[in-house]
Amino acid sequence: QVQLVESGGGVVRSGGSLRLSCEMFGGIYSTYTMAWYRQYPGKTRELIAHITTSGATHYADAVKGRFTISRDNSRKLLSLQMESLTPEDTAVYYCATISAPKNWGQGTQVTVSS
Prior knowledge:
10 strands
C-alpha cells in the first residue's frame, strides 16, 4: 500500500520561497510519474507540475518559471521548490502518483502574505 507524506508548508511573505517535500512509503517510487496539485477553498484540485519516471518535467502556466519539481529515486522523495511566491499561491498543496488509482498525500497548507 502506497503512502505519501508531505512536509514543508507554512507561511511566507510575498516574494519569498518555500520547499515542499513528499516521501513515499510502501511503493516502488521509481515506477511512478509523480505530481503536485494545489487546491483553493471550494475549488477542485489543479495539477501544477509533474515529473515522469525519466525525469521529464511539465508545469502549469501559473507556476512555470517560478516552481521546480524534482525527484530523488534513491530516497523516494519528491520536491517542489517554489520561488517568487504571491498571495495567489496560497492553497493546500498535495503530492500524488499519476496512476490508477491515484495515491494522495495528506496535503500541506501554503500561505503567502502580502
